[in-house]
Amino acid sequence: MTNELIFFTYPSCTSCRKTKSWLKEEHVDVEERHLFRNAPTVDELMELLKLSTDGIESLLATRSQAFKDLGIDVDDMKLSELLRLMSDNPKLLRRPIITDGKQLVIGYDKPGLETLAKRKARLIAQVS
């Protein structure tokens, strides 16, 4: 992952639309990636997991119908299997996911978004 803000989104998702609107209003540039057409790779998911304070639970949408339909117990799975499953089935991911490679924001989290935006602004100011 780079220092660029990456925004994994799905256009039909209400939280994704709210987040996108906030980013646009605040003039925050992001690399937007359609979560289902360009899903995070296993390596990208591992990097996101490293940034998470809640572990796999922060990424995995356990209340989603896609997860329930699988009928699996994540505690019985190896991490590598779980990451592959999420990469192959991005409907299992909570959304949106935004990262700069150092911080992770999942869902519409205005304070988290503000922190990411401030960090990005400081980086741009230092380079200029």
Give, in spatial order, the strands making up the sheet with the most strands. Answer: 2-1-3-4
Strand count: 4
Distance between the termini: 22 Å
From N to C, what is the helix and strand string?
Answer: EHEHHHHEEH
Which of globular, elongated, flat, extended, rod-shaped describes the shape? globular
The average pLDDT value, as a whole number, equals 91
Tally the helices: what do you get?
A: 6
Q: How large is the radius of gyration?
A: 15 Å
Which strand-content bin applies to the residues?
5-15%
Largest sheet: 4 strands, mixed
In helices, the fraction of residues equals: 40-55%
Low-confidence stretches: none
Structural class: alpha+beta
